[in-house]
Amino acid sequence: MNRVSAAQAMALLYRRDLVLAFRHWDQVFQPLLFFAMVTTLFPLALGPELDELRSLAGGVLWVGALLAALLGLDFLFRSDQADGALEQLLLSGQPVALLAAAKGAAHWTVCGLPLVLASPFIAIALGVPFSALCAVVLSIALGTGILSAIGAIGAALTLGLRRGSMLLSLLVLPLVMPALIFGARAIDAAVLGDSARGPLLLLAAMLVLALTLAPFAIAAALRISAE
Amino acid sequence: MQAFNFSGISASGVQVWRGERHVLRGVSAAAAAGDCLHVAGPNGAGKTTLLRVLAGLLVPEEGALLWGGSRIDSRRDDYAASLSFLAHSDALKSDFTARENLRYEVGLRRQVSAAEITDALAGVGLAASGDQPARSLSAGQRRRVALARVSLSAAPLWILDEPFTNLDSDGQGVAAELIAIHLDAGGAAIMAAHQPPSIPRHPARRLDLAA
After folding, report:
1. What secondary structure, in 3-state letters, does chain A show?
2. Which residues of A touch B78 (CB under 8 A)?
């Protein structure tokens, strides 16, 4: 009998989640529309002065992206738990941490990547100069990655609760505050014409840390939730 | 027909608390190659809980689960690979067709070809419905797809929670025959059911749980 290697299983699970997500387009578009909507609220509230908006752009982009990515987190394991597929994943004989990583990667592709792709356009609308767009994209890409990894732990932990989404936000947002600080700082620096290298490298380090440790925490949390 | 090399599992002195409720009080169960164990008992007696303990999903407060003579704690993934669990829910994605469901579920365990999936679907009487989305299948048809998943898993130990639920008499016969073939090959089956199952050629051993 041909057993499946963990890498093959991860690829299959990643594909499964993408196919499932694209049969429900709302899952892909809702975070994106939310991101566009929240970032539009700021010019309306603060006034259309581009100079003022430009100085706030880093914070606005980051808060918008974090909240939007948070929206999609609740979907991550909930449908699998509801139809019993989660138990089957736990019993598939594959390392659960790696399966969790594959699910997290699929979630980022569906919820995080569209935000990354939309961020330069929203940045331009907020008056960010073209020279800073590279830093915007990198910063949002690293940030959504960190949120997907840490958020997945929260999603797995709150799985057993009937109304876990509020608790999920309360659990996850404090943990991503350091990322928010450096991510918004990176965009600010680029807007002012300084080098964004330092804060971006710190963000990248946070992402690496989250990616290495989160899968094990997610796996443990899923096992507890499945009991 | 492949023959299994199954070393048997046994659980002894299993104690499980659910909040304030003492669900399993020192239950022992065992299954060796070719064994069919029927877990019986009234509603709420802990049949599902026992099956989840045996599947390694639920860690009991007390009691040991032995697989081939040693505890499973450190080899949970290997143990999981050697068993196939049919839960109360069918674990089907309603957006996927029956065929896709089988491909993605079984594909995590082993390489499975399209022809094998076609055969398995035909084996449970769903040759014509394989390309329908699972949401359009009836409860009985969904149960049949779930049984096809178990039969494709190539796992020596089957743990089945109410495998005959929602099945018509033809479906019950199909399920019983699948289980019989599995036992013929040297596999083992543990099932919870309200009615004593009649598995061809294999009388089931009964384990009664008190309420």
Report:
1. CCECCHHHHHHHHHHHHHHHHHCCHHHHHHHHHHHHHHHHHHHHHHCCCHHHHHHHHHHHHHHHHHHHHHHHHCHHHHHHHHCCHHHHHHCCCCCHHHHHHHHHHHHHHHHHHHHHHHHHHHHHHCCCCHHHHHHHHHHHHHHHHHHHHHHHHHHHHHHHCCCCHHHHHHHHHHHHHHHHHHHHHHHHHHHCCCCCHHHHHHHHHHHHHHHHHHHHHHHHHHHHHHC
2. 93
